[in-house]
Amino acid sequence: MAVRLPADILLSSMICLLVLLNGDDGYHVFHLPSHVESARTSPGSFHWYNGLFVFGHSFADTGNFPKADLSEVTRQWYKPYGCSHGFLQDPTGRFSNGFVQSDFIGKILGRTKAPETYRDTKENNGDKFGLNFAVGGAGVFEVPRKAPTLAKQIDSFKKMLDNGDIGKWQLKESVTLVAISGKDYARVANMTSESEILSFIGNVTDQIAGGVERLQKLGVTKVLVNTLHPLACTPWQARPSNYTKCMGRGNMAALFHNDDLEKKQNATSSNNVYLLDLN
Ligand SMILES: *[C@@H]1O[C@H](CO)[C@@H](O)[C@H](O)[C@H]1NC(C)=O
Ligand SMILES: *[C@@H]1O[C@H](CO)[C@@H](O)[C@H](O)[C@H]1NC(C)=O
Ligand SMILES: *[C@@H]1O[C@H](CO)[C@@H](O)[C@H](O)[C@H]1NC(C)=O
Ligand SMILES: *[C@@H]1O[C@H](CO)[C@@H](O)[C@H](O)[C@H]1NC(C)=O
């Protein structure tokens, strides 16, 4: 059974929640004062209990795409990215002025930010309570930018499991976030028939549900899966109107997507899969 969580619970910046993961007996959410958040935090040290594994795209990427000369695909390493709050004063490879979704969930788990990026694995300079495989621009299907798809991100994760870099016991104590939130739908702009769009939505949700199932077979126990936000209101859609209007059919597509995803998660009767309602 899939359970929907409202996004405002998980995404508000002054999060007052602590998610406690107690063995296998479920998921307990408590309201606590925010100062409790970082009580267990010690950046840079190695602690895998109550870890976080992240897959997805720019909502969750914390620097997996390497820094390079300024271009459209590396702009997250340049100001004004990262210029706003907290200790993230400089661009960090996040597509944000500050934190992204994986950071907020890291904070809910008692850390200061998201776990280290997959790219940093060898450099030993991140907060090692899990790993972040998300890459900006990624979807379930290949995109022009060639960000690794959800399936490829899971391949990398599997390789680390097979090598023993991540132990299965660690997964039992961890939360996994699947933040695949719409990159695939850029191509819907070119689709003319409604049936083609619906067929494509079905294909995207198949891939997401399939990815979640694969993660569970690999030993992941608790999974948060993003639903789609109102796509037509995202900046890449609203730009032509100077951000005064939500453009196109994206909001309708998002509703179909979310309903379809929920049906599929319900059908696989996966316990401990939580749809995170971004709409
Ligand atoms: C839509 O079609 C045009 C013309 O064929 C192409 O240049 C563009 O890349 C396509 N857009 C997407 C998102 O696939
Ligand atoms: C959806 O997937 C099916 C089966 O792979 C394929 O035949 C169909 O063309 C896909 N639909 C779209 C719109 O891509
Ligand atoms: C958007 O704003 C710019 C700068 O103010 C203006 O030049 C342009 O005409 C506006 N475009 C639309 C579609 O309103
Ligand atoms: C999924 O299951 C939940 C809980 O049983 C139910 O409330 C919801 O309507 C179902 N959603 C769909 C789309 O079938």
Automatic annotation (TrEMBL):
Homology family: Belongs to the 'GDSL' lipolytic enzyme family.
InterPro entries for this protein: GDSL, SGNH_hydro_sf
Name of the molecule in the record: GDSL esterase/lipase
GO MF term list: hydrolase activity, acting on ester bonds
Gene3D superfamilies associated with the record: SGNH hydrolase (3.40.50.1110)
GO biological process: lipid metabolic process
Keywords attached to this entry: Hydrolase, Lipid metabolism, Signal
Lineage: Eukaryota, Viridiplantae, Streptophyta, Embryophyta, Tracheophyta
Signal peptide: 1-26
